Amino acid sequence: MRAGVVSALMLGLLLAPLQSTAAETATAPIKIETGLVTGMAGDGVESFKGIPFAAPPVGPLRWRAPQPAAAWTGVRAANTYGFVCMQSERVDGSGFVFRRQDMSEDCLTVNIFRPVTRSAKPLPVMVWIHGGGMVGGAAAAPVHDGSAFARGGVILVSINYRLGRLGLFAHPALSKENADGGQLGNYALMDQIAGLKWVQRNIAAFGGDSNNVTIFGESAGAYSVDALMISPEARGLFHRAIAESGYGRGTYPRLSTPTPDGRPSAEAEGNSVMEALGVKAADATALRAVSADDIVASATGMMGMNFILDGKYITSDLWEAFRQNKAAPVPFILGSNSHETPMSDINRPQLRELVPASEDEALAKAYGGQEMYVSHLGSDVAFTEQARGLARLHQRNGHPTYLYLFSVVSAEDAAAGKGAAHAAEIRYVFDNLNVGVKPATGEAEKAAAKAMNAMWRAFALNSNPSTEGQPKWPMYDGHTIMEFTREGPKVHVDPRESRLDALAKILGPKS
Questions:
Q1: Which residue in the list 239, 376, 394, 422 is annotated as catalytic?
Q2: pLDDT tens column, 190-226
Q3: How high is the pLDDT of residue 437?
Q4: Is 284 helix (H, G, I), strand (E, B) or coil?
Q5: Is 340 considered catalytic here?
Q6: 290: domain range?
C-alpha cells in the first residue's frame, strides 16, 4: 500500500487527562547546551517538558531544515508541554479529534521523564514518536506520559515534529532557493533526526546513556521508525527500534520526478497546492507569506502524508532498502493489533489497487470464509502483513528481530468477539490504562500493561524483550511470535500464517 493511504485509520490522541497521584515540586536545575532547565518531581518521577530542540520553524525558517535552538539566560521552567504542531481539526470522520487550542508552528520541543532515584550508571533511553498519519497528533497526549517507563528505570523522551504540508512539502521555488544544501521536503523527518541528535548531545545531563537509545512509535510514528531505519542521516543515532502498527507499501514520492508508477513529483504536487491557494508566480518568500492556517486547511480531510525520496534523508524506497539489507542493523521489534480496522468495504479503491477482485475467491478460502476475509483484509493489507513482511526481511538479513500480535481486549469486547483496534496497544505499552474514554481497569488488562511495559523496557536495556515472570520471547524465525492476550503473553506459531502467506504473494511485488 502506498505510504499514507491507511492514515485515515489513525486514532492518535486519547484526550482524557491523567490524574495526578502526588503533589509535585520543582527539581534542581540541570545544565544543557542552551541553558539551565528545571522540571517537576512527584510520585517517583521527574519530568521536563517543552524544551526546545530546534529554533521555531516560523517566518523565513518555514520549510527549512531545523536550525539550532537559541540559548537563554537564567533558569527555564520546563514544567508544561510546548505547543502542539499545526494540524487540521480532524484527520477523518472517525470522531477522534486531534486539533487543540495550543497550536503553533513554534512546536519543536522534547519532553523527558526520568526516575527520581537513580544509580550512577547511565540509564537506557527510549525516544517516542507519536502517530497521527503525519498530519495530526502530539507528544503531549496524556496517553504518552512516560512515568511508568521512568519508574521502571528508563528515561523516556517524546518529541514533536512538523505535520501535514508544513512537515512534508516540496516546491520548485524552495528547491531553487536550496537554503540548506539539498535538505528539502522531508521536514518532519529532519525534525525527528534533529531530536535524536539533541538526545545524543544532551541526554547525559539527565542521566541517560547516549549509546543506548531505542526509538519507538505507533502508526505514523512506526512509519517514521521504518524511515529512520533506512535513512543515512539517522545512522548511529539509535541502537534498537520498535514499530507498532506501521504502514506503507509501494514507492515514496520523488522530489522532482514522477514515481516509477507515474505519480507526480512532490514538487509538482506542491505547485498545485500553492496555485489552489492563489500563489502562482511564487518564489520562496511568497510561499512563506501564506498563513499557516491556510496551509493546514488545504490538507483538511487528507488521510496522511508521505515521506519523499529526496536523495539525502531517504535514498531508496522502504521495501527495497530492507530487501537489499540497507536498513540499520539493529535489533527490531515489529507488530500489529488483532483487528486494526474493522472496515467491511473491500472494494475501496486503495484496497483494489493492491488486491484485485480476481483474487477474492482464493483469498477468501485462505481466510477461512468470506466473513473473515471481508473483516480482516483491510487490517492485514495495511498493518499486519506489512509488519510481518519487514520482520521477515530483517530476520533473513541476519539481524535480531521480534514479531508480536496484540489481541488484548476488555472482557465485554472479548465476549462480543471483537479484536484489538488500531492504537489500542499504546496505553498498555505506556501502562496508562486510565487514559481514554473508557478506562481499562480489569485485572487482566492491568497484568497485560505491566507485562508489555516491562518487555519494552527490557528490550531497551539489553536488546532482548524477555523479562522475568513472563514467557521467553524468542527471536523471530519466520513463524514464531509473541501474542499479548487477556490470559497473558503467549509464544506460538503465528495463527494468521496461512492467510498472510496467500496475501503476501499478491502484495510482495507491490511493496
A1: 422
A2: 999 999 999 999 999 999 999 999 999 999 999 999 9
A3: 66
A4: helix
A5: yes
A6: 266-296
Is residue 275 annotated as part of the catalytic site, yes or no? no
Shared-domain flag, residues 49 and 151: yes
Q: How far is CA 411 from CA 272, 407, 422, 442, 485, in A?
A: 50, 12, 18, 8, 11
Q: Which of 134, 31, 139 is nearest to 82 (CA)?
A: 139
Cell numbers at residue 284, please? 520562496
Using an 8 Å Cβ cutoff, are 150 and 45 in contact?
Answer: yes
* Cβ contacts of 323 within 8 Å, gap of 6 or more: 393
Catalytic residue (choose from 46, 340, 385, 483): 340
* 215 & 361 share domain: yes
CA–CA gap between residue 511 and residue 189 (Å, rounded): 21
Q: Give the lowest-confidence range in 109-123, 296-310, 402-416.
A: 296-310
Which of 131, 166, 106, 102 lies closest to 298, judged by CA? 166
Q: Environment class of residue 253 by beta-carbon count within 10 Å: exposed (0-12), middle (13-18) or buried (19+)? A: buried
Same domain, 323 and 389: yes
For the chain, how many structural domains are there in total? 2
Domain boundary, last residue among 248, 274, 296? 296
The single residue of 147, 219, 336, 379 carrying the catalytic annotation is: 219
Would you call 422 a catalytic residue per the annotation?
A: yes
